[in-house]
Records
---
Amino acid sequence: MTSLVFIDGDLGTTGLQVRHWLTGRSDLRLLQLPEEHRKIAAHRAEALNDCDIALLCLPDDAAREAVALVRRPDVRIIDASSAHRTSPGWVYGLPELEAGQAERIASARRVSNPGCYPTGALALIRPLIDDGLLPADYPLTIHAVSGYSGRGRAGLEDHEGSNASAAVPFQVYGLGLHHKHVPEIQQHSGLTHAPVFVPAYGDYRQGIVVTIALHLRLLPSGVTTERLHSALQTRYASQEYIDVQPLGGDVDAQRLDPCALNGTNRLRLAVFGQPQQEQVLLTAVFDNLGKGAAGAAVQNLDLMLGLSGLRELEPVELAGSIHGA
């Protein structure tokens, strides 16, 4: 019997993309509420308890409320919000985090989808800490630029609404250095101190570039650009959705396009070195609504359904989502 899946919040930016990628699949059934019932707690509670897996694409407070509405013990939950990413009893939904993580997700009752920025940061940091190449107490700084859809409804309204011509083309935020993703990154990376996290939004709809600079002189003796790159290659050699770019070439001529993987669940990692200055740059490119949100949710759903194999996800048009985000 095919599993029944309910997307709570299927009109937001993440929910729309999840629904697009699940519609028409024969290995599951989608439970959808009529328009007039979507915001009525009693109807949502009924749907949440009738389904096999509930996928929450909601703001944090609404996600906590949805979890509280679930009374039937057999209902499994994937929460795409940041409400439970560091909570006990929830399995962190980054299958590539470490050996056995995909299996833990597959058997879990409660899965918390990773944040978009942490997905790229953790994919770069965690293998290096696990291999002893990056000290857990390294004074790490993470820079990241996302498309404006990462702001949800507010970003879409600013850049696609009636006053779009006045939208700021680039803005750095989180200047108080207490962005909600920092505890998530620290907990799941193995860092002993919180990293400095500098996020920004650009004037494009979706896609992310994450960059992390390292000084080789602060790393253990013998650590080189090549060893860092090899560690990432080894870690992700068997992973379907993560690609590690080869070293070499004219790196000064290379560019990182944040939109290069839009509409997919893929994550592209790269390592760039400057041997004279003993500097290294770690980079990640992916779709903030793909591997950074909806694609990751679908990947986790497939694990929980006992399905495997690469699913190429077709791009979804977000037009009209301004009022549903």
Note: The longest strand covers residues 208-215.
---
Amino acid sequence: MRASTRIFAVSAAAVLALSGCSESGAEDGTQSLRIVYRSVDAPMVDLMENVKQQFEAANDGVSVELAPIEGNDEDYATKLALSQRSPDTAPDVFLEDSFKLRADVDAGYVLQLDDHLSDWEDWDSFNETAKQAGTGDDGGTYAIPLETDTRVIWYNQNVLSEAGIDLPWEPESWDDILTMARTVKASNPDVVPFSMYAGTMQSFYELLYGTPGGTLYDEDEQKWVTGSQGFVDSLAFLKTIYDEGLAVSPAEALDENIWQGIVGEMLPQDRMGATVEGSYAPQFWQAGGQYEWPEYSEVMATAPFPTQDGQEPGAVSMSGGWTLAVGSGTESPELAADFVKMALSYDNSLQYTVDSSKIAVRTDVAEASEYLEMNPFAGAVTEVLDVSNYRPATSDFAEIDTAVLTATQEVVAGGKSPEEAAAAYDDALIKIVGEENVTQK
């Protein structure tokens, strides 16, 4: 879509957004669907505008109203939540953050889609791990993944090679990571050997889910885990890299903007050996990116993050991403589900995924030459989706995630030992979910 057309589409949709929820049967006999999504990303705007045209052409008497929401993720979540509270404004189809899905399911805002997927042949083409993003506590499917991301180790080949480390570097355990980091530090004390943030997705969860049986939430028992040795071990690994000076300083690690220095300066300037970062890293370095780096494809390489001791499946990743969901209050559930299916068809998925540089959730899209050629690392960062995990984003998870973050930051800052921080987390967890909703591991 041309820029001028896109601007017109967004402006027109914004007007429609103010007109309230569409009704399935208008006075002239037509049916209407209201579609809510984020308008900050051009690929999303293009996708919705194209699907609107395709869907109206394929369904006589159906009108699609595009109702984009401007703003960041938090703005979108707030405005979406407000729209869902009234039948007059609730969407028929909406873009849903996988992190928010279970909370919205619990609130009764999302339609279960299993009956609508039973005869959709394309559903078999979606990656089984990616499908977790749309699964509710009851095992039902409430949203269809649109795209996702993964986490891997990004390493600077110049730094590792100068330290005498054989390339390609393929760590098989946490000890292999520590060996690399200590070797780099001994070779050049001015280089930061290895970085893991003091947060959760690129740090603690990447570790925890790579420990034997490591998880925050037992899906079988549907209870939160306390007394986890994997929790302690994960904090202990972080304590080791910071205590030994193998990472950035604790103060830098606690700075939420440290990623900019790592991605924009340290790695391009050969001042860091490796970091754990998302599959989207090339977007920063490609032409037109925030930190253009023409040589990034020759200097950087990736490795899957290993499990603690190399136990099966050998590697681990964490994923997030966006989905498409159908509002529980829609008067046209079949039409709404068909709109989602059309939006996520092979052709539409391929175009959107390549345009947005996101990880493909369809296996056939992941094999397409257009997808594999969007950047030199597309294949490598997609492969780890098979060993990736999604956060247990229940309605109370935001508060639990904060408790995990507190434990991580206290260990990185040196305020508590791993055992103390883990015990404090367990206490906080019980206060959040109740004694009856935890299980000892």
Note: Residues 150 and 257 are 20 Å apart (CA to CA).
